[in-house]
Structure formats: C-alpha cells, structure tokens
C-alpha cells in the first residue's frame, strides 16, 4: 500500500487578527513565524527518520505552505516541491470579518485564546462563537466547492504515490497544506467524521498519514494516523512545549 504524509504548515502570522475586521486577515496571516520555521524543519527531520528521504513534496499555493514545504524538502533532500492549487486553505478572513465587526472585542479575545492567555472557560466560549460562524459557512455552496477541490487534489496525490510504488520506488508522497484540507482528507477516509471538529485539532507541523490503494473507481484512501506531533514535544527549560501550537 502506498502512503500520503499530510503536513500542516508551521505557525503563521501572529498579528493577523489585528486587522481581520477590515478583511486583511489572509494577507497578514500568510507568513511563517520564526517558530513556524523551526516546526517545519523539525517535521522534515522526523520524516527522514521515518524513511521518507527523497520522496516528492507537493504543497498548496499559500506562502506559509510553500515555505513549510521548502523546509521539509530541504531536510528530506527531495526534488524541488511542486504546487497544486487544490491544497489551498479556506479563506478564514472572509468568514471572520463580518463576525468580528459585530463585536470589536472579539479580535482581542480570540488572539488571547489562540495564545493560551485566557481562562479555559473563556477560551471555550470564544471558540464556540467562532465555530458557530464557521459552521454557517460550511452549510453553503462554497464549502461544497472546497470539498470537491480537495478531493481532486487528494486523488492526484494518491496517484503519484501509487505510480511511484508501481515503478518500484518508495510509494509515498508528502503534501504540505493546512488544517481545513487535511481535516477534509480525514473525513474522506472516515465518512461521517465531523470536519469542523477535526480541523480544530490539527496542530502546526503535525503529520497525518493516509494509506492508498487502487480501487475500482480510482485511488482509495484509509486513515493510518491523525495529527501526529510527538516530534514537536521537546520541552523547553521551563517544562513548556513551545513547538506545540495550533495557530
């Protein structure tokens, strides 16, 4: 069986919420932080340890995806990564801007929640409001189009892995994307799984592994692991785990 290693990009722009109500979330967010670059390198290093050196790397068109893919490919000593537009993240800014304009304090609260600076009960309350806004979007036509696009990208990546296996090469491929597409892939392997809840758990630099085999109607995928981030667990001197992030 061939495999796809889905990698979420490293931590991205930490000031994106500041101007999100003005519709600038996407531009402000789409840059890796210094910590995000460390996460990307650590993830690539962990994939080398798993025997994936030299395998092809595919990534979405966003800066944070491209830069993460470059760091991963460098660690793997892989060929230059290739772009597939299907792995682009949903535009959270389009969903967030109206929600944030309703209450100017939401941006500050959400930023604190993402940085772990709010009490657990307040964090839960903010997240519930946020994902209510996202769930309204996920009931519409844009979500259906997003799902179909990710499915097409997944089929292409799966075929790359299968073709490599047929040639006698290592039957695997690394795809660097974002939480939304990765969670969507998991729901393809686990029909009925809640996409939005899965998306909330996908950590920066995490690895999700899909098994791939030929099917009567094209490649079939199965979920082998979800959201692995043990390679990011190295503690700091104060006992914290700085490489574990969700933003």
From TrEMBL:
SUPFAM superfamilies, per the entry: Phosphoglycerate mutase-like (SSF53254)
Molecular functions per Gene Ontology: phosphatase activity
Keywords: Glycolysis, Isomerase
SMART domains: PGAM
Gene3D superfamilies: Phosphoglycerate mutase-like (3.40.50.1240)
GO cellular component, one term: cytoplasm
Protein name stated in the entry: Phosphoglycerate mutase family protein
Organism: Candidatus Corynebacterium avicola
């Amino acid at each position: 069986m061939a495999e796809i290693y889905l990698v979420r990009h490293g931590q991205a722009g930490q000031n994106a919420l500041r101007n999100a109500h003005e519709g600038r979330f996407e531009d402000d967010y789409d840059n890796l932080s210094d910590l995000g670059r460390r996460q990307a390198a650590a993830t690539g290093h962990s994939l080398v340890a798993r025997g994936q050196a030299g395998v092809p790397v595919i990534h979405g068109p966003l800066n944070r995806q491209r830069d993460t893919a470059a760091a991963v490919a460098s660690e793997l000593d892989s060929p230059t990564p290739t772009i597939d537009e299907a792995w682009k993240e949903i535009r959270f800014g389009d969903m967030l801007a109206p929600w944030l304009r309703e209450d100017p304090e939401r941006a500050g609260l959400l930023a604190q929640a993402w940085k772990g600076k709010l009490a657990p009960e307040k964090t839960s309350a903010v997240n519930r409001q946020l994902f209510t806004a996202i769930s309204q979007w996920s009931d519409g036509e844009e979500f259906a189009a997003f799902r179909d696009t990710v499915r097409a990208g997944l089929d292409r990546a799966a075929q790359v892995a299968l073709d490599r296996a047929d040639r006698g090469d290592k039957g695997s491929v690394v795809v660097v994307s974002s939480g939304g597409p990765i969670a969507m892939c998991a729901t393809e392997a686990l029909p009925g799984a809640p996409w939005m809840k899965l998306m909330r758990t996908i950590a920066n630099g995490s690895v999700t592994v899909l098994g791939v085999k030929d099917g009567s109607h094209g490649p079939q995928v199965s979920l082998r692991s979800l959201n692995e981030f043990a390679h990011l667990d190295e503690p700091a001197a104060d006992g914290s785990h700085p490489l574990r992030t969700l933003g």
